[in-house]
Amino acid sequence: MPRQLAYGATITLKNHRTGGGYLHSHWHLYPEGVGARQQQITTYSHKDDNNLWLVKKFDTDAIPAEPELVRHGDLVRLEHTITRRNLHSHKEIAPISKKHYQVTGYG
């Protein structure tokens, strides 16, 4: 695992607690009646191009020309590399674990 992370890096995120799924998205929307009708964000247990996310500054689409490291306390945005949607959360109940909020791809 790298000790440093730069804006413009392409990353995968993996949950090591509940089965080890990668943060994953694809073109499918949540079905009507399941929270916001936005792009699905899930976990997936296999390596896949749909697991790739681009690290960006929260307030710009520009990627620095020279490497610029993400620092503790920075606000970042994760953009899905294939669909170009941002990782997004809001106060919609999650479709599976009703005690959490829904996460979507948006923007």
From TrEMBL:
SMART domains according to UniProt: MIR
Entry's Gene Ontology cellular component terms: endoplasmic reticulum
This protein's name: Protein O-mannosyl-transferase
Gene Ontology MF terms in the entry: dolichyl-phosphate-mannose-protein mannosyltransferase activity
Keyword set includes Repeat: yes
Keywords in alphabetical order: Repeat, Transferase
Chloroplast listed as a keyword: no
Signal peptide residues on this chain, from the entry's feature table: none
Span of domain MIR: 2-58, 67-107
